[in-house]
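Hi everyone, sorry if this is the wrong subforum. Our group has a chain we'd like a structural model of before ordering constructs, and none of us has done structure prediction before. Sequence below.
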Amino acid sequence: MTVLASVLDTFGDGLDFIVNERTGRGGGEVGGLSANGDLLWEHLKLCLVAMAIACAVALPLGLWLGHTRRAAFLAISVSNIGRAVPAIALLFVFFAFLGAGFANVALALTLLAIPPILTNAYVGVREVDPDAVDAARGVGMTGPQVLRRVELPLAMPLVFGGIRTSAVNVVATATIAPLAGVVTLGDPIINPSIYGEEGRLGAAILVALLAVATEVVLAGAQRAVTPRGLAASPRRRLMTRTRTILAALAALALMLGVVACGDDDDDGSAGGGGSSTQAAPTAAITKNAENASTTLTVGSKNFTEQKVLGEIYAQAFAAAGYKVRKELNLGDEQTALKALKGGQIDGYPEYTGTALLSFFEVPTKDLPKDATAAYDEAKSRFAEDGITAFPPTPFTSSNEVAVTQETADKLGLKKISDLDGKSQDLVLYGSPECRGRDDCLRGLQNVYGLKFKRFVPVDIAQRHEVLTNGDADVSIVFTTDPQISRNREVLLEDDKGMFPPYNSTFLMKTETADKAGPDLQKTIEAVNKNLTARVMQELNARVDLDKETPAEAASDYLQQFDLVSAGS
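Answer:
Right subforum, don't worry. Here is the predicted structure as tokens:
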């Protein structure tokens, strides 16, 4: 009963997300009938466009090939290719070569939908009894009349089977469209750090219901157009419908598992550039043999910047003489904090703004705008939980407004206020949650009074690509993204102090920090001293753009700033 009650309670949370609005983990309003209705409509619209194009292309071609008894190889090959190429791979290939946007995602889903429709239309007409066709020709019917009056009606069950299969596949696959800049019901599934686990479950319920509704509607349409004598028995219809529904739900479960495993792999900011590895005569961090009795397990969240920071601290602690273990790539901030409190790790880097928003539920509008004030508040709140927040880094990994150098020169942009009178002609791109955040679109509207021509949600991994390829005039990026320096982008000055600080602070249980001795804080302060926004951009770029490992980037940083000796 306990397990059943837990399942029902979790399911109830998902239903509650569908019905009731709430504040997301990153700020902004999420959930509720209105917001979910918008997501449902975008999901449905994308699927309808893809299916309409697929049917317009595949049905005539499949029927004609079946009628003429030609090109069997073409129909079978298309079907086999469609089965062999994973839907996710197809979508990302299109995304990589054609870019983000509704049209490109719809085209990818169209190609996913075509094989079952084409194959079933071909096979359905091809397998019509030749005697029936000969009889129709014997009474004087022309080829088109035979196809329309004899072959198509007889092939209708199989033709509709292909359409139903494609429709359910498209509904399921459209859940990953947010990764290509089209916000559908997949957005809460892909971004639980914004919507919460209840949002992920609620969206999955809606996708499952949409898949079932798609099956039921198309099954009804099939019965309506199928000649009575060819209609399946009630028992047969029930079995067919059950198999299709189960297949739809299985596909959705697989899709949910895929996005759950990979939801924040590339969430982070990044940075680039080379660095000197020349060792200093005297390293700032020196080994103390007394520290060897203390073992520290260093963790990190699951994106590039966090992995680099985790490696830097781990290598620095080792240089100070501590025994070090690493548990990097843990997950989102909730997962990392849980690991810290549960003793799986001893410490990890966290952002002050994230801590106040996600752990202590400070409303976005109430976040301190001063970096010191934000740290002091986070430090005080963590202390109440028995956690020490060490002094923060100079860099802040917060949102910022970016444009290309060409756009900045053309429009004379240096600060965000310079967009006044120009923004109405500009397209703004940002992460999906940006729409409802006070430190994103809503803040630009309320604090700066800006109205943009259009806001387009896009996966955070693509926020710089849309700038360079010309899709976006303005993009909301992270201040430590590596592409900023590599692409010569311009960050507009936040002259009204809209963006709150997200400086990184190393968290550790207070009892662990006390046992580690004074070398611990000295090491952390030495590490933090040179972690400016520019340096963090370069370190992230070495991993994201130059394909170094986080460990290699961390080692170069420590040696470049004479924190450790070469070979440490």
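For your construct planning: The chain has three domains: 41-262, 289-396+502-560, 399-491. Residues 194 and 449 are 25 Å apart (CA to CA).
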